[in-house]
């Protein structure tokens, strides 16, 4: 009997424990279901964070400047009005800024600005439209010769006037191109300049001494002076004086020139252009 009672008590204890475990599991499942069906609330202090973001939106970041306008060659078009006829020419501001210190100053001065913005029109009534056309042609193609022309027939007046314009407006690259043009003109069989163009060059108030030096050397080495002086009337006195001195110096140095030498030594007649150096071949 006692054994039977102990066995019965163990079973009863086991049953009670099992029932307790089942009740605990049921209670746990009920709590889980209750938790899963309860809507999730916002995290602590989220209302303050949302309110702050809404009331103070983030400003978009501005793009940083990539440089001055002059950094771009082909940017704003500047409208030039040239001569009494006010002939119109359009040139990119960046090209002017990069090529000529004269135009760089003109575009930067207060006289050419309106409300802090650079003016887009420049009037130059004292300049020749044809010479200015040579300048614009050179800016974009590095030559002063138009499509209908060639080196041999290009008038000397055009070369001399373009050189003088380049000196006044401080465009050394254009001056050096005029030097190249003179040498190529002679190489292609072009005649020497007559009295008119030579006297014009020697009357210019500017220096133009390098172009004068080139013409003196060409006359002294390649020209039949007796025919030139006889057929072209009176040259400017200072030109004749310079020619005599050149001949005397060449005789003393026993210098002999030819066309190839002039082309190879053309840098001797160049003006300094450190910002835009011209490669020599």
What does this protein structure show overall?
The protein has about 280 residues and is mainly α. It has helices spanning about 1-35, 45-55, 95-100, 100-110, 130-140, 155-170, 170-185, 195-205, 210-220, 225-230, 235-255, 260-265, and strands spanning about 75-80, 85-90, 115, 115-120, 120-125. The strands form two sheets. A three-stranded mixed sheet has the order 2-1-5. A two-stranded antiparallel sheet has the order 3-4. α9 crosses α11 (about 235-255). The longest helix is centred in the N-terminal third of the chain and has 36 residues, at about 1-35. The radius of gyration is 45 Å and the shape is elongated. It starts with a helix and ends in a 17-residue tail after the last helix. The relative contact order is 0.07. InterPro entries: BTB/POZ_dom, SKP1/BTB/POZ_sf. This is BTB domain-containing protein. Pfam families: BTB (PF00651). It comes from Letharia columbiana.
Number of distinct helices: 12
Return the average pLDDT rounded to an integer. 75
Largest sheet: 3 strands, mixed
Question: pLDDT under 50 segments (min length 5)?
Answer: 1-39, 45-71
* % residues in beta strands: 5-15%
Return the string of H and E elements: HHEEHHEEEHHHHHHHH
N-end to C-end Cα span? 129 Å
Number of strands: 5
What oligomerization state is this entry in? Answer: single chain
* Radius of gyration of CA atoms, rounded to a whole number: 45 Å
